[in-house]
Amino acid sequence: MLYRQASRIAVRDLGPHLRPMARRSHRETFEPVTMGHIRSHGVTRLLVYCGNAVWCHHSAKIAGDFLPDETQLIPLCERFVCTKCGMIGADVRPDWSQTMTTPGWGGAHRQ
Q1: 81 strand-pairing partners
Q2: For 33-41, which contacts have Cβ atoms below 8 Å and span 24 or more sequence positions?
Q3: Residue ranges of the domains in the chain?
Q4: In which element (H, E) is residue 106 found?
Q5: CB of 111 within 8 A of CB of 100?
Q6: Tens of pLDDT along the chain (111 residues)?
């Protein structure tokens, strides 16, 4: 208890430039990414990475043609199961490589 009081005093006595930063009250919000949005950019395949990135490192490419346009990617992540380690949950991303003619940095060589 004495330690807590001492730490409170120390933080309170710090100058304004040394006090811990306050949390931001304003956060940016974005529309959820849907399969329709991804398809509008010419991408139909998805890259799926195992959620157990420390031990497994398994990944796969899947066709997203069977998913409706309204399907959001974030809820889709928790529905995948790794076929190698059995972990539930994955990182799902668009496969942007199919929109490029030759490999390049940042999609500089798009069709």
Answers
A1: 88
A2: 33/72, 33/73, 33/74, 34/69, 34/70, 34/71, 34/72, 34/73, 35/64, 35/67, 35/68, 35/69, 35/70, 35/71, 35/73, 36/69, 36/70, 38/64, 38/73, 38/94, 39/64, 39/69, 41/94, 41/99
A3: 35-107
A4: none
A5: yes
A6: 444 444 444 545 555 555 555 555 567 788 889 999 999 999 999 999 998 878 898 999 999 999 999 999 999 999 999 999 999 999 999 999 877 765 556 555 554
